Amino acid sequence: MFPRSLKRLQVVLNHAKMCSAGMAIGSHNEVIHQVVNKTAMIVLNRPQALNSLNYSMIQKIHPQIRAWETDSDVQLLIMKGAGEKAFCAGGDIVALTENHKKDGKYGFTFFPDEYKLDYALGTYSKPYIAIIDGVTMGGGVGLSVHGQFRVATERTLFAMPETGIGLVPDVGGGYFLPRLEGKLGMYLALTGYRLKGRDVQLAGVATHYIQSNKITELEETLVGLDQPSIKNVNEILDSFHKESTSEQHDFILKSEIDKINKVFSGASLEQIFENLEKDGSEWALKELNKLKRMSPTSMKVTFRQITEGGHLSLEDVFLMENRLTQRCMEDHDFYEGVRALLVEKDQKPKWKPDTLEGVTQEKVDWYFSKLPNGREMTLP
Predict the structure, then answer these.
(1) Active site residue 172
(2) pLDDT value at residue 332
């Protein structure tokens, strides 16, 4: 690598010293962006908030990656989070609910614009790498999982915990979750189970795994490519992955995967509950108790979302999920879940209805129905 390119890379990696480089860097510091050699780099820079995604960040990132996509001087895109704790812990849900209560419109803008960004990354015409080092949940999953390359580390913590706050596993969850092996995706969607480190890659959420102390070396190697391509980027990632995975590691759910595939293959959410009760093992009863704490409405909508999403294109999944999250903004459980788990933190949400039986088919159909007043989303 040319010394000047290395210096520029260090400016991006050590973003606290970015002004000393005298180069154009993303404004307001929530998002840092820079082109080094042929590589464009984005740093999500809200470490104090675990790099949670807010609306202004979406507005900065989307036009920038579109500009790079048509820039012949850019051949590779890398995204990472600032600090060592998180890639992106999700959308800034508390701010979302508070702002929506004020004007009644914020959520109707946030979600579709977030999905447009996720879709742009998922269909990006140039190699895209997300380095998902640390917490990667919700909105952070949307920024990463649809790209060609997702690199996990021993610090990665992945989850889609939305049913616990009255939401659904959106950001394209309806696309990637049912495409995981067996019924693992349905299990992760309904329970919010957390995968860590190497298991994120073994589950198929990440494409590669490296030790976190190798990240800087990996980035320097990638930035040193004069003509990045899918082929040579993949070769580099494979090499780092091989070096970091020399020791045997069994998937954390290896002993439960057969049960997961059997139990979560139920033809309805009610049947999954019945399967768990019938199984009666310590594992099954633990999972059953976990599900009983989730929003019944969110779970029934999620079950249909994952079931139908397995047969839809990425574009159609985002169109579907826009309807689902818009309906969440109009319903009760999302606000109640945020209150109980994220604001007051009493951990005692009062769901309406509070039983599976209380969630009618008409209610579920309403979530999937066409939105009024021009609120349907369109993708390029």
Answers:
(1) no
(2) 96
